[in-house]
Amino acid sequence: MSAQKTLASLRLDGGILCLDFVNTVSNRRRSTTHDYLPNFRELLQWYAHTGALSAKTIQTLERLAKGYPQKAAVIFDKSIQLRELLLRLFTAVIAHKPPAASDLQLFNTYMADAYANIEMAWRSATRQGELQFNAPALEQVNWWLVKSAVELYSSGKLAQVRQCPACGWLFLDKSRNGSRKWCSMSTCGDVSKVKQNYERKKKKKA
Are 169 and 182 in contact (CB under 8 A)? Predict the structure, then answer.
């Protein structure tokens, strides 16, 4: 019997917020998958799981979602569209192909909306500025994802993005020699080893 899939047990193997968001579908290599984000409320719980938003911000967004349920539903639909858009953008890079013009244009609309609401804040603890979205708006759930994706897509780290051959999850290969193959050695890596051992034994018996 397989373990129940919950947000609390969802691994954060992406190495960066935007890739962890793409990985909220259990296995992109299968025709039948589990989506960890069925609604806006679960999206906020995912943010709590990642630690990307403070508890205070999440509580504010929860109150806004209760007050404006239709708007929350529309924004959630855009979140899921953004998730699949990011998948296409990053897998194109992995395949050494340029992004589709329509995908880049769509992402630019998300980016325009997000960066129209960004502001610089000063962090005394780090003694440096930090870009923030402080407006109490439901759209924050998309803005932070867009910011994460923009920072990755326009940096040298983009060349480190990989896709797990077993489950299709995306991750940043931070290994010293750039040879990381699996999203996680304890899951997909182990499954692959078991399969290889089984095939070797099968050949010996034949």
Answer: no
Query: Are 16 and 171 within 8 A, CB to CB?
Result: no
Contact (Cβ atoms closer than 8 angstroms) between residue 157 and residue 15: no
Beta strands in the chain (DSSP E): 119-123, 128-132, 161-163, 170-172
- In sign, the C-alpha dihedral spanning 44, 109, 133, 116 is negative
Task: Name the residue type at position 105.
Answer: Q
Task: Specify the 3-state DSSP secondary structure of 25.
Answer: strand
Residue 35 in 3-state DSSP? Answer: strand
CB atoms within 10 A of CB 176: 6
Q: At what angle do helices 40-50 and 55-67 cross, to 10 degrees?
A: 180
In angstroms, rounded to a whole number, what is the distance separating the alpha carbons of residues 87 and 133? 24
In the block, residue with structure tokens 């205070």: 56
pLDDT in tens, 54-93: 999 999 999 999 999 999 999 999 999 999 999 999 999 9
Distance CA 175, CA 79 (A): 30
Handedness of CA 119, 82, 163, 104 (dihedral sign): negative
How many Cβ atoms from other residues are within 10 Å of residue 171's Cβ?
23
